[in-house]
Amino acid sequence: MPDTIRTRSSQDAVLPYGVTDPLLWRAAYDVAAAHRADAEGRCSSLLCARRPAPCAPLTAARRAMRLAGDASRRADDGERAGGRTGERRRAA
After folding, report:
1. Tens digits of per-residue pLDDT, 22-71?
2. Cβ atoms 42, 61 nearer than 8 A
3. Residue 52 lies in a domain
4. Domain coverage including residue 64
5. Interacting residues of 37 by C-beta distance below 8 A, sequence separation 6+
6. How many domains does one find in the chain?
7. How would DSSP label each residue in 28-48?
8. Residue 9 lies in a domain
């Protein structure tokens, strides 16, 4: 058995803030990386046979990446970053 190690692009990617399911996010990231559009606007994956981008796997991967995060947590954190809104909340 060859002693080769396959690396995936998601191993080097930094998880965005708010991701609650890193395994789902990294799997979706790898699918999205494999299905990027080429210069002609077609999917570069051999599985898609040069269909127009975005292909179904890329669309599903983007959706999975969104679902892997906690949107409500990001909205709350954005509100707190504003300063006064978070302070009013604590004072109430």
Report:
1. 999 999 999 999 999 999 999 989 899 889 989 999 999 999 999 998 75
2. no
3. yes
4. 18-75
5. 43, 44, 53, 54
6. 1
7. HHHHHHHT-B-TTSBB--GGG
8. no
